[in-house]
Amino acid sequence: MPDVRLASPQGKWILLTTVLGSSMALLDSTVVNVALPRIGRDLDADLAALQWTVNAYMVTLAGLILLGGALGDRFGRRRVFVVGVVWFAVASLLCGIAPNAEVLIAARALQGVGGALLTPGSLALIQASFHPDDRGRAVGLWSGFGGIGAAVGPFVGGWLVDGPGWRWVFLLNVPLAALCVPVALRHVPESGDGRAHGRFDVLGAVLGAVALALVTYGLIAAGEDGAVAVISAAAGVAAAVAFVVVERRRAEPMMPLELFASRQFTAVNLVTLCVYAALGGFFFLAALQLQVVVGYSALAAGTALLPTTVLMLLLSARSGELADRVGPRLPLTVGPLLCAAGMLLMLRVGPGASYPADVLPALLVLGLGMVTLVAPLTATVLGSVDVARAGLASGINNAAARAAGLVAVAALPLLAGMGEEAYREPAAFDTAFGRAMVWCAGALVVGAVVAAAVVRRPPPGCKRPECLRHGGVTAPPLEGEPVRKRLS
Fold this sequence. Notes:
Subcellular location: Cell membrane
Radius of gyration: 21 Å
Distance between the termini: 29 Å
Keywords: Antibiotic resistance, Cell membrane, Membrane, Transmembrane, Transmembrane helix, Transport
Shape: globular
Order of helices and strands: HHHHHHHHHHHHHHHH
Organism: Streptomyces dubilierae
Helix content: over 70%
Main location: membrane
Largest sheet: none
InterPro entries: EmrB-like, MFS, MFS_dom, MFS_trans_sf
């Protein structure tokens, strides 16, 4: 049984280590969007390259995050966490010195691999190290400090872009890792799952990542070469079918398909796909809209987007308490509708837009919608499966959200009619941005309809969320016990 007390010096070092590790990934997921216009100008990159700057990271992260949790259970959570931090830092260094867009995109893909190793490990280390009486408070502090890191990310990113330059958005991870690794090696106890056995489902993980990459490539390439786009998308669908076949036949699959026999689990994941597709597309395009069309600096754009994260950090716990009383269906219906209203309010954000009159109201409504839905969504995912599989269910839900976001970043410019040079043409980008917001609002309405029609209150005694304060905007928090599936 873990016995480290939170008040002890070792407990404080463990908390610091996990906060530093998770903050690296959270910072990266929020600050890169703010840097995109400057990256495009400095590297002479078109819109497709900017899409891949975001999506190369998301493809490997979404495809491998379940594998990362399983590797920690098998080979030691501290060991895999440290490997992930070092990997992430090295990839960040490569991003920071990238001479062109192609190298940057490749380094971003490597960064996603590191993120898949360290993201599940940070919470797993807390669960495996702290005394049961202190674990809830430790998780609360971890999620709270992580949320603060996510909240300051756009501000710090904007300041770096306008000051030392966009490369420091990535280089900042190197000193964070240099602090995190020695503390982890010295103060964090090693832990693992002694029941882990068998071979890893590497084939399933690779097929999942390849399917995402090919579909994404097809969507991004559709505006340039229709034949290549169709072939790529078809190959991606074939890889996805192969992934399902492999997972169905494995004795120990990475993603057990029988979980989707639960109508509730399937419905909540459909809501997740709709919500996080819209949010992923929004935060990618909004940072560009504020800089390209409204004329904000990177610092101003990053600061402008803070209200959504701050509201989530301050109010998520109360939203979870409300959902416990009224059940998840109402919040999961109202939350997406509020988000949709916020995105439609963004239609007022154009040339000469006023922040207090135009931008802030949209972001406040969007933030309230996110507050309303995130905690109930996580609770419903955990409550729709057996307690023993709560961690796995949370991991699948988190991966689904990231996959939805990357597909949205690939598809929205195509659906909205953005050309390759759109982000260099304010008038054209503004028109396409308006179309994209309508698409995002439509996806959120679909999610609300699914929730209203299918989601019901989980049974009494189901597992409840531990990460009550969540500041991330790209995916719901990972929850529950570490993923223990043995991948073959």
